[in-house]
Amino acid sequence: MSAIRRREAQVSFVGAGPGDPELLTIRALQRLQSARVVLHDALVPREILGLVPPDVRLISVGKRAGRHSMPQDRINTLLVRLARRGHRLVRLKGGDPAIFGRLAEEVSALKEAGVSYEVVPGITAASAAAAATGISLTLRGKARRVQFVTGHAEDGSDFDPVASGLCDPHVTSAIYMARKAAPKIQAGLLSAGWSGEAQALIVGNAGRADEVQIRTRLDALSRSLAALPRETAVILLLGAAIRGETRERAKPLNVPTAVHCPFENMTVPGRSRVKIP
Ligand code: SAH
Q: Hey, is 75 helix, strand or coil?
């Protein structure tokens, strides 16, 4: 079974966007207003839950780093059970449901149970952060690729920024759940040849009233991130695009000629093409 149109769908996975109700899609709002039950994550703020009619049952299955209020398999079971009871069900997730939202696991449980579903996309944190800071995630000739990366290693192992593909400066990396990984990112990129002066952009609670923006040097990255309160949702942007410059930099990045980066034809500003082993 594949995702189908709303009229037939028993469950709607709805992207809540970054937290500002104005950044919801019209379809998301319609689904919230016609639901009988809404299961939502902790990241979804009160302003958005306030749009749900008062007679709708709200169930928090809140998940935040280190605080899993409901295990994933219980969420899956609950979704199936409520859908089978014939409730119009919305599964509300922060940002876009298809980005670090464990959508696949929930969809798989529904498919197994023969429950139909649809996905209503939302504005992901990377887009909200780009909009908030006024930068373009792509930049002609400077950033031809954008990647969404999680800083959260599933098996608890240390985050490796090089293996995670962060070290090509011509790629814009939007790093979700970057807090714990920040010292590794800083050290790993410095030892891969990035300059300590390279810029990083930290956006906390992007798109909300209490948004915080920090532009920092790479060598001060983990200190800057640590300054933000733990409850602030934080996204980190890295790469040449975040400088927002369309001209070549006057001063080249201080990088060695051989950078251990698993990309072919990688180029580093101020240097000729680097041959990757
Ligand atoms: N599906 C979500 C991501 C969920 S993972 C999306 O598409 O945005 C949770 C992580 O997303 C947080 O730890 C944080 O890194 C990031 N995040 C979510 N909302 C955010 C916001 N408003 N501002 C900054 N980062 C945010």
A: helix
SS (H, E, C) 19-57: CCHHHCCHHHHHHHHCCCEEEECCCCCHHHHCCCCCCCE
Residue 222 pLDDT greater than 70, yes or no: yes
pTM: 0.86
Ligand 1 centroid – CA 244 distance (Å):
22
| Residue 184 confidence (pLDDT) | 93
Backbone phi and psi for residue 219, each to the nearest 5 degrees, phi listed first: -75, -5
- The pLDDT tens digits for 195-217 are 999 999 999 999 999 999 999 99
- What one-letter code names the amino acid at 178? A
Domains of the chain: 11-123 (3.40.1010.10), 126-243 (3.30.950.10)
DSSP 224-257: HHHTS-TTS-EEEEESGGGG---SPPSS-----S
Residue count (the chain): 277
Measured CA angle at 71 (ends 125, 8), to 5 deg: 70
Quick one: which H or E segment has residue 80? helix 72-84
Candidates 13, 232, 234, 236: which one to mutate for ligand 1, based on the most atoms within 8 Å of Cβ?
Answer: 234
Ligand 1 center from residue 78 Cα (angstroms):
24
Q: What is the pLDDT of residue 7?
A: 59
Tokens of 120: 């209503």
As a whole number of angstroms, the distance between CA 138 and CA 79 comes to 38
Ligand 1 pocket check for 23: Cβ under 6 Å: no
